[in-house]
Every structure is written in C-alpha cells, then in structure tokens.
C-alpha cells in the first residue's frame, strides 16, 4: 500500500461514498469510496475494482445504497479525463431502464460503447516550417516548402501528398532543421458541416412543410413533428432545413437511419448540402473510428451524427434535434439484452432535454399516425413527388388467373413486363424477402423434412454455397445427396422459392440479361455498397433482392418492380402484419420511377382483394390507415392499449413452461390488465432453448411497468438454465 491509500483508509467516518453503475444486471449502483484528492460528480466515468477485475462505470445520482459496511468498501481507482454524462443523459438512461425493465447498468453500458475513448485522444506528431532553409535547394524541396508556408502544422504523409513528393524528401528537410516537430490535437473525424453550404430552392408544398417544421424547430422546446410524404417528395430536403437551423443555433444533431451501413448515398447527399459528411455510428465502424467519434461527440467537435439506433445512446455534449428517418422501420426495435424502440426513446430523449424530434416516413407507423391525428404530433404533409418524377403505376397480378409455368414462381404477366423493361434498356427489380434457394427441402420418397437440430425451423437450402442452413442459429451442413431418413438418392425436392431460385428462373427466361442477386448472406457491407453503386450506374438488367434493396437506394433506370410474393408477410400471427406488409411493399415499389421515366410496380398475389393490396394499387393510403386504426382501436391494441411480452426460455421444455406458469400465478390482480398464456412460442426452440411466451395486455393508461415488476418480484426466482426476457411494446411475436 502506498502512502496515499493509508490516507484513504485513515478516517472511515469522513469518507465520501457514491453509487457507481456498473455494466451488470444489478438493480442499482454499487457503493465505492471516493479517494481524498479525487474529484467526482454524478456522471463521471470511472474505473473501479470489481472482484479481481477493473471495470468501467458511471458515478450515479442519489445516495449510495448504504447496505454495505463502509469499512469493506473499495475505492474508485481512477476518474477518466472525459466530460461526465450530463444530467439529461442520466435521466434518460434511468427512464429507459425503468420503462424497459432493464437493470440501469446495462442501459448505461450502451452509452459507454467505446472502451478506450474515455481518455483524451493522444496528441499527434506534426511538422512545422522553421526559418531555416536547406543548403541545397531542389525543385521538389521548393514544392514542399511552398506547400508548408501556410503557417499550419502538417502531418508527414499529408505534406508529402500535398507537395507531390515522397516522404524521404521531407525527412531530408527535417534533418536539416527546416521542419520542427510539434504536437497538435488529433484532427476531427469529420469536418464541421456548414448550414449555408448549398441551400436548395424548395418548391411548392415543400416550402410550406419547411416553414411548419422550422416553426417547431426554432421554438427550441420539445415537440414531435411527423413528416409524411411519398418517396421522392423531398422529405430529406425539408428536414435538412431543420438540421441547418439547429446547426446555426450551435446545437448538435442526430439523424437516425434504419440501415446505416447501406446508406452511402445518404452521406453523399448530406455532403452536397452541408459541404461535409456527418459522423457515422453503427456496428460496422472500425474500432478506432468508433472511439474517435464517441470522444468527439462528447466534446462537441462532431456536430452531426448519422447513425443506427444505438447512436441514441451517444453522450452528446449539447444535442438539439433528433431526426428519425423511416420511423416505421422495424430495425429501430432492438431485441437483444435491452429491448427498446429507438424511435420511441428518441421522443423521450427530446422530451427530457426539451428539444424537437422529427419523425419521417412515406408509410408512417399506425402509432405515429394516431399521434398526429390526435394532435400530439405536428403533421407535415408532402403529397407529391418532386419535379417530373411520377409515382409508378401499380397493379396486382392475380396468381389464380395468371399462374406461373410448371416449377416456376413468376407469372407470365410479370415475365412479359420484365422483357419489355430490359428491352428498352431499363432495369427490373424482383423482390422476395427470402434468402437462399428454397425455404424447405423434403424427401419425395419418405416425406422427411430437413429441420434444424437446435431450433424449431426448417433448414434453408443455399445452392450457391451448396449448404442447407438454419436462419435462426446459423447451423449449416453440406447439402446431402441422399435422404438421411430413408437413404434414397436424388429424391430431395426444394419447396418454395428464395431469391437464388428466382434468379435461376430469370436466367432461364432471359439468358442474355445481366442478373444480380442482392442478399445479405451473399456479401459483406463493402461489397454490397459497390454492387448498389454498380446497379445505379446501370451495370445490371435484372436485380433480385431481399429486404435490403428496399431501403433508400436511388436507381434511376429502375422502371419495373415486381413483388414475387406479396402475400408472404400476411401469413403470420403478428397484429402488425398488414401494416408491415403495406409499408414494405410501398417502399419497394417506391424504388421505381425515381426519374422522369414511366414506371410500373406489380404485386403477385393470391389475395388481390386484400385491403393491403387494394391500398397499394389504389394509392389510397388513407383508407388503409383508417381501417387499420379502427381495427386496432376495436381490439385495444397499440396505441389504444399496451402490450408487453415475456419470453421464458430454458434448456428443458418443462423448466421453461413451469417458470412461465409460476410468473403468471404470481401476477397481481389489476383492473384493466390481463395475461394471455403461457403458450409455447411459435419458435418453440432456438439454439436448443425451449421457449414459452406470456402476453400482457393493458389499457392505454395502465401502469404496465409496476405490474411487470410486481410479477417478477413475486414470481419464482430465475434458477438453473431459466432466463426471462421482458419485451415492453413488442414488435415480434415469434
Ligand atoms: P424523399 O426523402 O421524400 O424520398 P428526397 O428529399 O430524397 O425525397 O427528394 C427526392 C429527389 O428529389 C432527390 O434526388 C432530391 O435531391 C430531389 N429534390 C427534392 N426536392 C428538391 C428541391 N427543392 N430542389 C432540388 N432537388 C430536389
Ligand atoms: Zn437453428
């Protein structure tokens, strides 16, 4: 022990004790002693001993829990030289923890996802021109000196690049004292955006929309606006004005995007408007970049972040606006560890800090639509596409009347249109939200179906890779030639289509066409970005893709979109199935006709009269929403009622079911709240774990959180392999 620690443990009574939230499933912070000369405040990011380890935590508000004998407490090891999480951020993290029924330390951990960024970035070595000049001047040396004469410090590689010389020339000059070494702060990850860089001329309804939005934004207090307008109407252009106004006011901006890794085109557009790119935040960032971004967001160097849902937990220095683009997108819901919806939590964050939040969608969620109808959100409409871009003409193909040929999945009507589009030198997109070749393989002789050994799901054939694979756990095996059940050779049949199978069919019909399959399992993000660029440049005739082609891309020559199976999303027991299908299909068909060319969207369906199909082809979104809203209201489903689901899983079916029953029996009796189940989950087995679900339904004003907490507290303790997941406002019912 050093002298310091003797000081520290000298006077027990005087010691300051604070709660520190640690990244652990504990209900509150752990108590730690603050060493004498250490300055901490609520929000300070600290390192503390925990058993044999050192862990990072945050000093939290309130008194410590006082249950531990102060003599036994350990001391905070270190305070990081990093801005503390401010009060709003701490209130927000507590709020999310309480709402989602998650231990607060696990929520706080989401704000600290940059392990080595808590200390300041090291200064970087740079070169500065001195008064000295080399003994012998050469043309290359002159160029270097000319380039460095601007009075700034330069990095070696930057200067070599600017002067067009190799770095050995610079080494030579430095050796002669022409340059001295200086240490400068690290460069920002992105340069600051300029709100006045390229101000667009807004047209027609865009002007009113921007004026309405600016009223909300300039009020500088909490409000939620919902920009609702068809794809291509200029929603992005309009919310860029809100961003500009916020930047002018000196505040930071967060733009949430559902599929950030794929939105290179968004970054470029932002740069065209603001002269610099926003900082990106998503799971594919290189660790170094990630840490720089985190750090520079906390210090305020980064002014705008465009990120995936996790960006909501970045500790901004002074956030003044959040945009949630494609607010209806299911990707905003995280269903892993902390179950939260980033769209809803963005609204909470705005309310806590008193700043505006803007939700944006061509097909808003029913929840947001209702909120704008009852005046809780400010509705902002953009009814028409910008310029001469017309919406595609949309139609259904009744598959009962125009069935595909034997062994095929594409109706002759669709095939004819594909032929026409590529005949005109334009592009066609076929959408099917199913990866692989076929969703099910069976033996024609004995009927054996290939199933995952660890999940209750069929194995999906991936013919390109010669494998069959489980889409829930990743289990895969080589595609067998014989049936493992009856041993018969060459009698395995693929049932139903995946994108690979559609590609095969397309190649059969259009052998000359350049066909490309876009599916997340076939390529990484980088490759995907390249492929998307290539498609935009016209380097493919027919694109066959899964969900990821739906989002945000701009393909100017895409004049035909065919939905291979429009009924696919309607078949499950999800109360949002119709809404989801409507949103996804609208989004995909919206890929067509982004320029002046005439375009067509066709939906293959066996239910042409279904309200979803009718809403899309008639363009009568209002009727669809009205119907959906009425149905939700009748069934008291969100936003007219509240839902929470509880998933109990265990290594044995019996344990899972027993625990779920125990929870149900322990639930308090509360007027207006009822429980369905436990029932075996539709996905009854995932990764070898058996799953049971309880669905809690409450009236709109019921206190769901208190109910759930009381139920857990009174219920059986989680023992052995049992684990319980709470999902408040569930999106998935599987
Ligand atoms: P949305 O976000 O509604 O899909 P965008 O903002 O992306 O619409 O606009 C669609 C296209 O029209 C984009 O290429 C955009 O640059 C262009 N655009 C929209 N409004 C304007 C405008 N006022 N001036 C110039 N181009 C515009
Ligand atoms: Zn599996």
UniProtKB/TrEMBL annotation:
Task: Kindly give the Pfam families that the UniProt entry links to this protein.
Answer: DEAD, PriA_3primeBD, PriA_C, Zn_ribbon_PriA
Q: Does the keyword Oxidoreductase apply?
A: no
CDD domains per record:
DEXHc_priA
Question: What keywords were assigned to this record?
Answer: ATP-binding, DNA replication, DNA-binding, Helicase, Hydrolase, Isomerase, Metal-binding, Nucleotide-binding, Primosome, Zinc
Highest rank taxon of the organism: Bacteria
Q: Which residues form the Helicase ATP-binding domain?
A: 216-382
Keyword hit for Hydrolase? yes
Q: Which residues bind Zn(2+) 2 per the record?
A: 452, 455, 470, 473
Reactions catalysed, semicolon-separated, are: Couples ATP hydrolysis with the unwinding of duplex DNA by translocating in the 3'-5' direction; ATP + H2O = ADP + phosphate + H(+)
Q: How is the cofactor bound?
A: Binds 2 zinc ions per subunit.
- Which SUPFAM superfamilies does its entry note? P-loop containing nucleoside triphosphate hydrolases (SSF52540)
| Gene Ontology MF terms | hydrolase activity
Cofactor (UniProt):
Zn(2+)
Q: What is its EC number?
A: 5.6.2.4
Sites where the protein binds Zn(2+) 1: 443, 446, 483, 486
Biological role stated in the UniProt entry: Initiates the restart of stalled replication forks, which reloads the replicative helicase on sites other than the origin of replication. Recognizes and binds to abandoned replication forks and remodels them to uncover a helicase loading site. Promotes assembly of the primosome at these replication forks.
UniProt record similarity statement: Belongs to the helicase family. PriA subfamily.
Its quaternary organisation is:
Component of the replication restart primosome.
Name-wise, this protein is Replication restart protein PriA
Q: Which gene encodes it?
A: priA
